[in-house]
Amino acid sequence: MKKATTTKTTYQIPIGPIHPALKEPVFFEFELDGEKIVDVDVKLGHVHRGIEWASRKRNPVQILYLAERICGICSFCHPAAFTLAVENVAEIQVPERAEYLRVIQAELERICSHTLWAGVAAHEIGFDTVLYLTWQIREKALDLTEYLTGNRVTKAIIMIGGVRRDITPDMIPKINETLKYLKDNFEKLRHIFLDDKTVKMRSQSCGILTKDDALKLCAVGPTTRASGVKKDVRVDTSYFAYGDLDITYTTPDILTGEVNGDVYDRIIVRLLEIKQSIDLIEQCLDKMPSGPIVAEPKIAKLLAQLKKTNGEGVGRHEAPRGEVIHYVKLDGVNDAPFTWKVRAPTYNNILPWIPMLKGQQIADIPIVAASTDPCMSCTNRVAIIKDGNRFEMNKEQLHKLSVEKTRRLKL
Amino acid sequence: MTEEKILSAEEIVKYFTDKFSTKIKEVKIKRRVAGIKKNETSYIWMKIEKNDFKDFIKHLCDFQFPHLGVISGNDLGNSIELIYHFTLNYGNRMKEVILNLSVELPKSKPEIETICDFIPGALISEREKQEFLGVKIIGIPDNRRLFLPDEIPEGVYPWRRDETGPEKLYRNLHEVKK
User: Fold this and answer.
1) How confident is the model at residue A410 (pLDDT cuts 50, 70, 90)?
2) Which of A347, A373, A393 finishes a domain?
3) Which of the listed residues A185, A304, A335, A349 has the most CB atoms within 10 Å of its CB?
4) Are A40 and A123 members of one domain?
5) In chain B, whose CA is at the least distance from the CA of A327?
């Protein structure tokens, strides 16, 4: 009898470093009691590439290209934050037109990222038709990105002191056409995600992050706004052209009148932000002044100026996943910056996973993990160790568990 | 928390210089304007003594619960500088103030107290500083490595510029035989 009392009733399953929700590596170790998650431990670093260290041999313009390759989806955000930091150190004033062009690019990227996320989230709960629908919509946004920048993903559009490509009047009809398409389809997306009974049952009261936890754990972006914290760099500060535009915080109570901080609220915030982004692009096209698009077109001259600059600065930008912050220190002697520190939004959204996942079921792991829209990389295998026996569960089986849970709702 | 008082950068600086007076070694306010309307954003750069650091954070949390962006660090030769990037006044249109708090730690004793008891969200950033800069965070709730793989030996800190830097590791990388 005594032996029975000392036996642990919980068991552990490791998930990762390849899988849970998105296709990037992070390692979770779950402490489970039956189906219920009691504790979570997160391990990181599987894709740490030492980018900050690599910057020690590059000048600021070369770093732009390096920054762009930190993340495929945020290929505007990272160089943008780096550029802002460098501009703050060297006190470069950007032409007004360039500020508006930057907002258009940033918001277009947000539309691409949020529709991509919506598809992944639908896939995680076994709603694959919606995955195809959202990605079909995203395709149009990517086409527009390609039309404006020449590339679908790695855009190389931002430059220290401005942007590299202008939007000419003959491009406006194509932009308007895509925006109209996005607006028409937004209503369809809204209806599927917010009114569908299955989506509601899987996402409401699931993966709750309270406002208190969000503040204390320093969460950022839609993750924190869905918990009712009003924090958005675009609204809080004046950078790019955001100070001129009409913009407010997107919190779930705008639509439902209440804040629960669950997965459903995070869906609401992201969907409303798609609409907000369309609106911001339209405002920019309306108000955009004419003029030059870059402060110093001669790169050699710019680099010479930066080489002489001594000081430090931070650049902050609201990426689709939240605040991205870069710190840059220039020493006035070398071409390369003395220090470059990158902080991506998911870095701050790791700790909030722990309160979100505690008390949930195994089948909820994919959707809860996906609900912060993590940006790392994932695992194809899950090993379960139960009563000393080890058996493995692959991504398909875990995904199947999640799909089965949706089926069990019997709709 | 944020609704009660919206203070400008000057008022924030005044509040802390009144409280800590001579203990603040250096303070400057930088402003940046953007867009057609030229709205401003303020950045406070503040340098304080290591001994007053914990007390300062305590006052900061009482004053207004800050959001910690990240902790960045510099190897300055004889000392290691840690910079805590806080934001205050968020939740108010264009009123946010960025507070960059810098502390210098001597290399002979690179130790600083944890702030996780006030701001639990600082844990990831503190763990990163421990392994990348070789700073010892006293009282950190979780002492494990965060990003670095197990193969990297103890006592090598990738962001250091002295003999504990990663140079000896990368020089040997291409010589590794399979």
Assistant:
1) low
2) A347
3) A349
4) no
5) B72
Residues of B in contact with A99 (CB under 8 A): 34-35
3-state SS of chain A: helix, strand, coil percent to 5?
A: 50, 15, 35
pTM summary value:
0.89
Per 3-state DSSP, chain B is made up of helix, strand and coil in percentages (nearest 5) of 30, 30, 40
Q: Are A81 and A316 within 8 A, CB to CB?
A: yes
Nearest to A77 by CA among A240, A276, A251: A240
Burial class (CB in 10 A: 0-12, 13-18, 19+), B103: buried
ipTM, 2 decimals? 0.91
Radius of gyration for the alpha carbons in chain B, expressed in angstroms and rounded: 19
Sign of the alpha-carbon torsion through A84, A88, A89, A91: positive
- Write out the residue range of the structural domain in which residue A377 sits: 11-47+351-408
Contact of A241 with B36, CB cutoff 8 Å: yes
The DSSP 8-state label assigned to residue A399 in this structure reads: H
CB contact residues (below 8 A), chain A span 208-267, against chain B: 215-219, 229-231, 233, 235-244, 248-249
B36 is written with which tokens?
Answer: 């057609």
Give the pLDDT score at B109: 92
pLDDT tens-place string over residues A108-117? 999 999 999 8
Angle between helices A128-149 and A96-124 (to 10 degrees): 160
H-run or E-run covering A185: helix A172-195
CA-wise closest residue to A232 among A281, A262, A273, A265: A273
Going from the N-terminus, what domains does chain B have, and what CATH number goes with each? 9-168 (3.30.460.80)
A355, A336, A403: which is closest to A57 by C-alpha? A336
Task: Looking at the structure, tell me whether residues A389 and A339 fall in a common domain.
Answer: no
DSSP bridge pairs for A29? A14, A41
The strand pair at B111-113 and B136-138 is best described as: parallel
Question: Model confidence at A393, in pLDDT bands (50, 70, 90)?
Answer: low
**Residue A217 with chain B: CB contacts under 8 Å:** 120-121
**Cα–Cα distance list, B20 to A298, B13, B16, B24 (Å):** 46, 10, 6, 6
Q: A125 and A177 in one domain?
A: yes
Q: pLDDT per residue over A27-56, tens digit each? A: 888 888 888 888 888 888 777 778 888 888
Could you please report the per-residue DSSP string of A223-267? HHHTTT----HHHHS--TTGGGS------THHHHS----SHHHHH
How long is chain A? 411
A368 and A312 in a single domain? The answer is no
Please report whether residue A320 resides in a domain. yes
How many angstroms separate the CA of residue B51 from the nearest CA in chain A? 24
Both structure tokens of A314:
């931070």
Amino acid letter, A93: Q
